[in-house]
Amino acid sequence: MKIADWPDAERPREKLLHKGSESLSDAELLAIFLRTGVAGTNAVDLARQLLSRFGSLRSLLSASQQEFCSARGLGRAKYVQLQAVLEMARRYLQESLLREQAFCSAEDTRRYLIGRMRDEPNELFAMLLLDSQHRLITFKPMFHGTIDAASVYPRVLVKTALDLHAAAVILAHNHPSGVAEPSEADKQITHRICAAMALVDIRVLDHFVVGDGEAVSFAERGLL
Q: Residue ranges of the MPN domain (predicted)?
């Protein structure tokens, strides 16, 4: 049956307008993005098939271009649209942190970093650079690959912070394994960075280790 033949209360678009986006299932949200189905399959049923194939909505959204475009009902145009939507969501989260009081809450920072870093396929070490009022200047990716004492250079971090006139920084890196527990190497490099930043009067407010849907704060753990 075509979606146009469904009762208004069951159509994804009408349901969103009347009940809000949070009332829709993953398949219904995906169906709105797809807009149309394929021959013999409406958009909602196609969305269910895609979710079954990829295993979850997140897996579909983070699929490579080749994986995404090889699926029935998808293609390069849909891939481009999806990447644009995801980038807008990331920028929305970042802009929300530009508000003056954003960094009064560790939860705001945690939420942004999870959305920004958890799907990175490799380890990424980054900094949030802040002004004297702890407002965000920028998010700056710094090092890629295995993060240990040999691959993170405090002097590079200090130079970047000085060049961008940061008064404070928040460190962050992800664990692609999904486990956000800080390692001994994480603790060692954090102490080295804090010492280097202190020499130029730049505060390290926190260091977050980002896993799959969670982020551990060094400050909350008393590790700074």
A: 102-224
The residue-averaged pLDDT of 54-64 equals 86
Domains of the chain are 3-91 (1.10.150), 100-221 (3.40.140.10)
Q: How far apart are CA 128 and CA 139, in angstroms?
A: 5
Alpha carbons 6 and 134: distance in angstroms, whole number: 51
Q: Is 72 exposed, middle or buried (0-12, 13-18, 19+ CB in 10 A)?
A: exposed
Q: So what's the pLDDT on residue 195?
A: 96
How is residue 183 annotated by DSSP? P
pLDDT of residue 73: 86
| Whether 8 contacts 19, CB under 8 Å | no
pLDDT for the residue numbered 58: 81
Nearest to 190 by CA among 162, 145, 222, 215: 222
pTM of the predicted model over 0.85: no
115/112 Cα distance (integer angstroms): 5
Tell me 64's DSSP state: -
Residues making up the chain, counted from first to last: 224
Q: What is the dihedral of CA 23, 88, 111, 190, to 10 degrees?
A: 160
DSSP states along 32-57:
HHH-S-BTTB-HHHHHHHHHHHHSSH
